Amino acid sequence: MNPLELTLGIMTAVGGFVDISELVFAAKAGSMFGYALIWVFALATGGIMVFGEMSGRVAAVAKQPVFNLMRHRLGLKLGLVTLFASLIANLITCAAEIGGVALVLRYLTGAPYLLMAVLAAAVLMASMWVLPFKWIERIYGLLGLFMLAFIAALVAIHAPWGKIAGGFVPQVPHGLSTKEYLVFAYFAVAIVSAVMFPYEAYFYSSGGIEEEWGPKDLPMNKVTCTAGFGLGSLLSIAILASSAQLFTPANVSPELLGSSALEVAIPFGWIGLVIALLGMLFAISGAAIETCMANAYSISQFFGWEWGRHRKPWDAPRFTVTWTVLFVAALAIILTGIDPMQLVEYAVLFSILVLPLTYLPLLLLAGDKSYMKEHANGRFGKTLGWFYFALITAAALGALPLYVLTSGGQG
Amino acid sequence: MKPSDPLKVVSQLLDLPLIDCNGNYCGIVDDVAFTGGGGKEARLDALLVGPGAYRGRMPRWAMWLVRKIAGDRMTRVPIAKVKSIDSAVHLTGAAEKLSLHDVENRVRAHIPRVGAM
Questions:
Q1: Whole-model pTM over 0.80
Q2: In which residue ranges of chain A is pLDDT below 50?
Q3: How many structural domains comprise chain A?
Q4: A298 touching B, CB under 8 A?
């Protein structure tokens, strides 16, 4: 393992971990339930570590991306259903991310939101065209490290570390009304969805192929998934904890994306505010690119087209047309005037509904000795994989009723 | 695995990606064709690639949709052109020579060759 590559990989994973849905739900969860939902973030982070590691391992050993093998494993019909479901979930998520970038640009410049959405989409598409895969991943991931300001802010406000540590223990708050318990459950489901968005594993796996991983890269894959995703998740937990510390006593509900940035502005003033907004800008921009590319990867791999951003755009023509069309479609959703916060709710809801369908093939592939040989899931990997599959299935079954009963977490 | 080895068509061949001699992706094994007939020895003759090969694998309404979106072209890849089979089907020839990159090339003609690093 090259230490520089490993460090860069971990830092990229940290900076690229947080997206708009985590920002929104972490801040809301902290203000409404204090530290009581930290354990759900930790639990879901375990899930994305497990499935992320599996997707990287499949890419490194079978030398084929997950969607190629998924079609072979599930067949054409069920494969198409899975493809379609993940396409819709990722498209809504991509639109929400573009809306988030536009909102942050509006906070920074004061320019009209829709104009910023068009500008953001143009800049992101240009960077997808110009930059090769590694540069796209590194630039947005590393600049997303501005988000570390949220951890610095948590230290600066003298956070109650004992209470935060207590939040890692699975718990349900006492003395809530039935409706409040339902809202708590809705938030738990939404956090699982936001942390385990299906695009993350598919993007990661395709990235492994783009960078030509082999079995020698398996230790790096394991370390990147555990350290990178684990440290990235601490950012979300810091946002939640700051929100609990600052917003709950003031009875403030952070309904806007910009409310999260106030967590850094309060201890560090306007410099903190700008750093937090820059961190959000690059983290959400990176997520917008990842969701769009994850969709283009999936379609291209499913139909056996040339794909990848390690190639020039004209060397993978249908892949290029696909990501261009998908990005324009996501922008078109934003230009309808839909509230991006509402879109975040839809993205989280739809993603959790399709999560079992998108992760089951991965679980089956990673355990299949005909592809994976001695690198197939062992007993420990299988147990963890099926535990998380049961968890996301339960969350998927509960998501829609909870969304309806709580009016999307409003109570 | 070589194409002449004993082969389970569905679990070891169908829906695998095709990779040409230059390492380029060039489709998926959408169906297979056999020679022979009733009472005769069946031999794997060709791999069928393209949306036209979905016929019989999808409901009629879905096939109508596929035809509208992607057309119904289908390319036959003679089994003699298959070099080996593992997690992909590796071909002995180039995708262009086997007519597997016709659409890629048609789309490529419309993409400007500027700006990318």
A1: yes
A2: none
A3: 1
A4: no
